[in-house]
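Suppose you are handed a protein chain with no further information: no name, no annotation, nothing but its sequence. What can you learn? This example shows the usual starting point.
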Amino acid sequence: MRFLYQKNARFVSATHINRNDICLLLCLLVLSCIPLAFEWKTFFQKPDEAQVWVNGKLQTTISLSSELNTEFEVQDIPGYAIIQVKNGKIRIHTDDSPRQIGVHMGWIDKPYEQVVNVPYKIMIVITGKQTSDIDALAQ
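A reasonable first move is to predict its three-dimensional structure. Written in structure tokens, the prediction is:
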């Protein structure tokens, strides 16, 4: 009981931060940014190519070079879908699906981005320059 009544007792506040705490926080911040530095280059790289998948099978692989401007029709679907490549970007330009979701997804140009047309089972995936055993979801 005597401890509670001491007049010179000094209590340390829970919000008191000293120099060592700041150094620890800075070290943890730097260590947490190291994985970002390795993935930064992969995330912002210009993509090499795009893959067009239809019914779960790879139909074509097309280069996304900036000088390539082309359109082509997707084969083996009940309707029609036209894919457009322009200035290093790709999109589904037109199709006759009911809701036009794939058309409204617009242009894609970064690695691991996708455009999906569910009624015709069309999926356009941009691949990066580096191959990896990890899928895009895990990255």
